[in-house]
């Protein structure tokens, strides 16, 4: 199989298709397939200087001209394709989404402030007004939650976020108002979907705080991020995995800020919080391994020793103290991790786990559950 690419700077007088056909016929006689992997017309004005190529004597090493032609980064790009505009034109920034490798849609806020779109499914369809009565007061944003779903969000003239969605089964919905944070919001909404089960909409509140609304089958209320963050522009959310989201925003001093979210840990995962110190009847501790039901974990305080973390996790995994409290501390003598006399007293490096502790760990992983 011969795999090759065609990049056209100046089209030949004969059609490229006829030449490809001729190539297939020629090699086909000998059972050799021909696969034209890609064909692009590099309609790039700034590449005009590459259309006449010095090939030197056309033998031996390539010339500098040839090296420049074959190595040009712009050869990976197409030229700009004119997609026209809706009747009357449009303003602002277009939004695009691709729900699968077969489809691409682009949306704009028309000059009539209606939502307009153009669809690609192998070729471009005409501009279509996706009416429904909403007068847009911001550029739209678009996203997809599944190969048979996409949705568009925009600000309405009522100051609320509005959503319109499409599914293979039901086509376009009418516009649905998602309201607005208390006090309203500034600029356009932004959206992200980390999986087909979840979608979030974020805005810059009128109080400059980040606000969001979450969908997980139904919409939850507007939630303010009470973290002291303030935005001077609408936020930009993204997702790197189905258990991760992050949001970028421009701060009040012009710097870029990021915050992220990770899915809650599973009931079989241990979470350790490092804290300043503890209060309670137990007195001052290096750490503590009691935790709420279904949330195995421990706290480790500022006074912890090198072995406190390992010790507390040992408790979470089901290990009891092997001695203690002081002065009854035989475990310290042979350096057992699970001494009840305080991890600050362990001198063996590293401490050991006794034979029974090793067995318990195998039998009772997370046994307190
Ligand atoms: Zn302990």
Helices and strands in order:
Elements: E1 2-8, H1 16-28, E2 34-41, H2 64-71, E3 90-100, E4 103-110, E5 115-120, E6 128-129, E7 141-146, E8 149-155, E9 161-167, E10 171-172, E11 176-179, E12 185-195, E13 198-205, E14 210-215, E15 223-224, E16 236-238, E17 244-250, E18 256-262, E19 271-274, E20 287-288, E21 297-300, H3 308-316, H4 330-333, H5 355-363
Parallel strand pairs: 1-2, 19-21
Antiparallel strand pairs: 3-4, 4-5, 5-6, 7-8, 8-9, 9-10, 9-11, 12-13, 13-14, 14-15, 16-17, 17-18, 20-21
Bound molecules: zinc ion.
Zinc ion (ZN) is lined by residues 311, 315, 321, 340.
Can you offer a commentary on this structure?
There is one protein chain. 12% of the residues lie in helices and 33% in strands. It has 369 residues and is mostly beta strands. It is extended and about 100 Å long. Strands 7, 8, 9, 10 and 11 form a five-stranded antiparallel sheet that branches. It has a four-stranded antiparallel sheet with strand order 3-4-5-6, with no helix packed on it. The chain has a four-stranded antiparallel sheet with strand order 12-13-14-15, with no helix packed on it. β8 (149-155) and β9 (161-167) form a beta hairpin. The protein has helices at 16-28, 64-71, 308-316, 330-333, 355-363; strands at 2-8, 34-41, 90-100, 103-110, 115-120, 128-129, 141-146, 149-155, 161-167, 171-172, 176-179, 185-195, 198-205, 210-215, 223-224, 236-238, 244-250, 256-262, 271-274, 287-288, 297-300. 24% of the residues are buried. The structure holds zinc ion. Zinc ion (ZN) is lined by residues 311, 315, 321, 340.
């Amino acid at each position: 199989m011969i795999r090759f690419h065609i990049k056209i700077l100046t089209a030949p007088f004969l059609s490229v298709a006829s030449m490809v056909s001729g190539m297939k016929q020629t090699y086909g006689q000998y059972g050799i397939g021909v696969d034209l992997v890609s064909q692009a017309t590099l309609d790039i004005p700034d590449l005009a200087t590459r259309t006449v190529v010095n090939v030197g004597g056309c033998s031996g090493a390539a010339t500098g001209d040839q090296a420049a032609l074959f190595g040009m980064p712009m050869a990976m790009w197409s030229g700009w394709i004119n997609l026209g505009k809706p009747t009357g034109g449009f303003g602002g920034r277009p939004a695009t989404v691709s729900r699968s490798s077969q489809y691409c849609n682009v949306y704009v806020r028309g000059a009539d402030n209606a939502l307009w779109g153009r669809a690609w499914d192998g070729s471009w369809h005409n501009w279509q007004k996706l009416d429904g009565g909403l007068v847009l007061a911001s550029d739209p944003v678009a996203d997809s939650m599944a190969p048979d779903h996409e949705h568009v969000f925009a600000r309405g003239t009522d100051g609320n976020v509005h959503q319109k969605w499409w599914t293979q089964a039901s086509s376009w919905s009418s516009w649905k108002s998602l309201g607005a944070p208390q006090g309203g919001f500034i600029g356009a909404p932004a959206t992200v979907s980390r999986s087909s089960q979840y979608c979030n909409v974020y805005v810059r509140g009128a109080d400059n705080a980040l606000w969001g609304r979450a969908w997980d089958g139904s919409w939850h209320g507007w939630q303010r991020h009470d973290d002291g963050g303030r935005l001077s522009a609408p936020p930009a959310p993204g997702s790197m995995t189905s258990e991760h989201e992050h949001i970028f925003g421009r701060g009040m001093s012009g710097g870029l800020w990021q915050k992220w979210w990770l899915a809650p840990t599973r009931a079989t995962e241990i979470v350790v919080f490092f804290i300043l110190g503890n209060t309670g009847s137990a007195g001052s501790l290096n750490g503590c391994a009691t935790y709420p039901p279904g949330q195995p974990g421990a706290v480790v305080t500022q006074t912890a020793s090198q072995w406190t973390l390992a010790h507390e996790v040992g408790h979470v995994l089901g290990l009891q103290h092997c001695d203690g409290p002081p002065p009854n501390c035989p475990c310290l003598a042979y350096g057992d991790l699970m001494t009840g006399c305080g991890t600050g007293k362990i001198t063996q490096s590293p401490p050991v786990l006794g034979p029974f502790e090793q067995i318990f760990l195998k039998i009772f992983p997370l046994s307190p559950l």
